[in-house]
Amino acid sequence: MIRRERLFGAIIAGVAALFSGVVAGAETINFQLNTGKRGQNVLLASDIFRWQDALPMKETAPGQYSVSMVEPWLYRMEYKFIVDGHWIPDPGNSELASDGMGGWNSVRHVDFREDPILGASDPGSFVRNEITVRDWEGDSRIIKVVRPRNTRGKRLVVVYFNDGDGYLEYANAENLLANLSKDPKMPAFAGVFLNAKDRDREYYANDDYAAFVARTVVPAVERTLNAKIQPTDRLIIGISLGGLSSFYITLKHPDVFPFVTSQSGSLWFEPSRMHRILRKLSGRKLRFVIQMGLYDESDMVSSSREMARALEGMGFDVIHTEFPGTHDWVPWRNLLQQTLRHFFETR
After folding, report:
1. What number is the average pLDDT over the span 132-138?
2. Whole-model pTM above 0.90?
């Protein structure tokens, strides 16, 4: 079944009740413009919407226009009002940034707070290794592995990250794993950081790459860890195309990766093909987490909803979360603790 998180109702102006919930803790921010003229068509445009989509503003009093949106998970946003087709900065906001075309955008800072578990960890708590494996084309690949120095009798869980260098550099994944490993309700976490040789070719649901991860990388990692890991103690996760790839690896190798998280995954790619594979997996105990930003491109948002519905209809365990953010590392890293707790926390 789909487990829904807290539902905030109408998320942005004109949006109906959502298929699934937005992560708890979101607040709304308001934008207002007084034009002094009634009956105008007033919109809010922003870099969050890539300056393409715009939110309609409601006339709340004669000549006074307003719109609310869920506070985005970022630190600043640039915006303009569109009044009867004319783009103008916010006259009530003195902070401006060049729009690159000789004009100005208004700047609004957002009071977003990072998950503190992403902060610094004890540098001596983890051992770092690099292992070299050969891929299906005979090329050498370096796989980065971090593992706890002392598991203190805990079971060991291994998290595989597509776009691994991104998770290391931008998502503080090593700190997260180290800090979560200290939690008595959590297992010890090792992290495996994978990087594509040719991202477009390998992450677009590529059978060779999927088999390489499941049949070559996993055994090599577990030899390095000197551990036999149960399938339910493995998770594969990725962002964007890496989220599609992670999803596809679970579909093709459910015996190795029964758990998967797709963060803003490109699940618009060949959905009929994915559905055909999923139908063949009916009855398998697979668990999916699909996370998508409300302010991502509309086809990304709609395809993630459609895939979650399809998974539910086929009887799989799925959580579909829509976060108030864009295609960005800020929300992705701040959802990691929630994701790992969903799969592995002792309750």
Report:
1. 97
2. no
